[in-house]
């Protein structure tokens, strides 16, 4: 059995984090009764589970709680102080995924992290290999920096948003 790690970062509607914790757990507990969810900063919930990230994402997005706004499946987490390691890992992830067009969305939820350094570093690292494209990317790299950890997700454009479209 895989150890429980943060597999989802979920943003919530204003002041709905505590309500969202129980609604998200109701979905995840169907497959992992030891799952945990916690509002770590206002309107941001981290979900720890032994399920693979995209399985947990599928359980929540298939019947999303009304309080959820965005759901990010976490592919990796890194100390936010090690920007070089984050750039290396994201660059490697994009190369392995054979992504030709991408962009980086960096969200600082609770930290003094400098997203520009990360975004520029990844762009420079992949110069000549992959193109930064904000209009028609194949994938979007989402980096959620919460306290001292950067959580990385790789998704299609707008796939993180909870909407009626996500139910079709």
From TrEMBL:
Keyword RNA-binding: yes
Iron among keywords: no
Keywords tagged on the record: RNA-binding
Molecular function terms from GO: RNA binding
THUMP domain ranges (all copies): 54-156
InterPro entries named in the record: THUMP_dom, THUMPD1-like
Organism superkingdom: Archaea
Name this protein carries in UniProt: THUMP domain-containing protein
Transmembrane region(s): none
Natural source organism: Candidatus Aramenus sulfurataquae
GO biological process, one term: tRNA modification
